Structures are given as structure tokens and as C-alpha cells.
Amino acid sequence: MEYLNAFWVGGLICALVQILMEKTKMMPGRIMVLLVCLGAVISFFGWYEPFMEYAGAGASVPLLGFGNVLMKGVKEAVDSEGILGLFQGGFKAGAVGCSAALIFGYLASLIFEPKMKS
To answer: Phi first, then psi: what are they for 47, rounded to 5°?
Structure first.
């Protein structure tokens, strides 16, 4: 049942984003920022953890999950470091995901010979 919940919740998120892209004039970058901010807001209110327990990877993999990770990092850093944690918590929490994306993207470029768009 966990796989089914992850599949339909993740698919619903992607479908809603696709509808948003098709029906509005919003650029994909702005929609991505909207998703990250929405994930952070949902996390702030404490609703993301129950949502993630239900949906599993369907909730943690999309950009909403990245917003949740950033918010959790900021909360933990503020609790331990004070006001300076507001500035460093998100960077520490998101560093692993960003580093992995850069490293695997670079490795893929070495293997698959990327071409420039013309």
C-alpha cells in the first residue's frame, strides 16, 4: 500500500503542476520556486510530516520535499545557533542534495557526451 500511496500522491502533484504550466503563463522556474516555498510553508505549520508518513516518496521526492528539508534545517539551526541559524540552516540541510545533483550531473556529462541546443 505504501507504493500505491507514493505513486498516486506523487502523480497528483506532478499532474497539478502540469495543469498549472498549461493553463497559466507562469514560467517553469517560477513554478519550481512556488513548490519549494509551498513545501516550506506546509512544513512550518507542521503538516508535512503526517503528509510524508502517508505518501512516502510521493511527498519527499518532489520539490515540495526540498522545501520541507530546508525548513527543517532552518528550525534545527535556529534552535541550536540562534538567529544565525536562520541564515545557515537551509544551506546545511540542502547541501547534500545539491552536491549530489552536481556530482551526478557532471558524471552523466562525462559518460553521455552532452550537446548544446541550437
So the answer is: -95, -15
d(CA 80, CA 117) in angstroms, rounded, equals 46
Cell triple for 8: 498516486
pTM: predicted TM-score of the whole model, two decimal places: 0.78
Q: How far apart are CA 37 and CA 106, in angstroms?
A: 27
Asked, for residue 117, whether it belongs to a domain, the answer is: no
For residues 81 and 84, give the distance between their C-alpha atoms in angstroms, rounded to a whole number.
6
What is the domain extent for residue 37?
2-112
Each residue's pLDDT expressed in tens, for the chain with a length of 118 residues? 889 999 999 999 999 999 999 999 899 899 999 999 999 999 999 999 999 999 998 888 888 989 999 999 999 999 999 998 888 998 899 898 889 989 999 999 899 987 777 7
Residue 97: enclosing H or E segment and its boundaries?
Answer: helix 85-112
How many structural domains is the chain composed of?
1
